[in-house]
Design brief:
Elements: H1 2-6, H2 8-11, E1 13-20, E2 23-29, E3 33-39, H3 45-55, E4 67-72, E5 78-84, E6 87-93, H4 99-118, E7 125-131
Antiparallel strand pairs: 1-2, 1-7, 2-3, 3-6, 4-5, 5-6
Length: about 130
């Protein structure tokens, strides 16, 4: 994972925010961690939980309860998932994981975003900001 930190693209911290009414999605991709946070209507919690449960066979998220899960997936990806009705946060420590794990979690989070935005229509505002 150290070679990934050297990449100029990864050296730049990126914050992506997407707001649409009661939906807020933020991604922070730093040198040493990747974090995805989403807030959405409680009615979407079952869909988000079902998607995560399908994608992560070792994890079972109950859409009705607050939970914090720290787990190692079969491919040795170490992630933290915090969820409650209407919210989810997925965290990956880049120093503890491989480049493949980073891309797997990044794709997983894109899938969660798609599940949420599929129900919100096309009225999405996307903001990109980068800091050095």
């Amino acid at each position: 994972m150290k070679s990934l930190l050297i990449s100029p693209m990864i050296m730049v911290a990126m914050l992506v925010s997407c707001n649409n009414g009661d939906v807020s999605i933020a991604v922070k991709d730093e040198d040493d961690y990747y974090r995805f946070r989403a807030q959405f209507g409680d009615n979407l919690s079952p869909d988000v939980s079902r998607f995560l449960n399908d994608q992560l066979s070792t994890v079972r998220i109950d859409p009705e309860k607050d939970s914090k899960i720290i787990t190692v997936l079969p491919d040795q990806t170490r992630i933290t998932i915090e969820s409650s009705p209407g919210e989810v946060m997925i965290y990956l420590d880049k120093d503890e994981n491989s480049r493949d794990s980073y891309y797997r979690v990044k794709n997983l989070c894109e899938g969660v975003k798609d599940v949420i935005l599929r129900h919100k229509g096309n009225n999405t505002r996307l903001e990109n900001s980068r800091s050095n």
